[in-house]
Amino acid sequence: MVSATVDVVDETFLAVPPPVVAAVFADAGAWPRFWPDLVLSVYADRGAQGLRWTVRGALVGTMEVWLEPVLDGTLLHYFLRADPAGPDGRAAAAGSVPARVLAAERRRRQLAAKRVAFHLKRRLEGDRPPGHPPVATA
């Protein structure tokens, strides 16, 4: 099996319980705001543990958010394994995308993953000072 050319892994701690984070990702209406050039189809809804999607659009592959309960909050794990889409909407042929273009795409997706995570951190944690208990509801 050939590995994906865009392989992104990210982790961010959110001081809220996993069901609060899961509710954000369960809202399919939020997906285009988080990933505007991707079309997602759920293939595994794991409830408070997260979601797994197939991805098409600008990329073709899979994506996952895994929500791990840690201490008084959630460790948000993000995985994207995909390839750029070719003109036919399928994964571009191996070697058809220049290495510098792939490197730029990986970096762009890494930064986008962190933007989503920090957006959720601000939104869900609110004004909670560091070291204080998580907010009960968001």
Tell me the CATH architecture: 2-Layer Sandwich
The outline comes out as elongated
Bin the helical content.
25-40%
Strand content: 35-45%
| Number of separate domains | 1
The number of helical segments is: 3
CATH top level is: Alpha Beta
Give the strand tally: 5
Identify the strand order in the major beta sheet: 1-5-4-3-2
Low-confidence spans: pLDDT under 50, at least 5 residues? none
Order of helices and strands: EHHEEEEH
* Average pLDDT, all residues: 91
Distance between the termini: 42 Å
Protein name: Polyketide cyclase / dehydrase and lipid transport
Summarize the structure in words.
This is Polyketide cyclase / dehydrase and lipid transport. It comes from Goodfellowiella coeruleoviolacea. This protein is an alpha+beta fold and 138 residues long. The protein has a single domain, classed as START domain (Alpha-D-Glucose-1,6-Bisphosphate, Chain A, domain 4). 29% of the residues lie in helices and 36% in strands. It has 3 helices and 5 strands, in the order E-H-H-E-E-E-E-H. Strand 3 and strand 4 form a beta hairpin. The longest helix is centred in the last third of the chain and has 27 residues. The protein is elongated, with a radius of gyration of 16 Å.
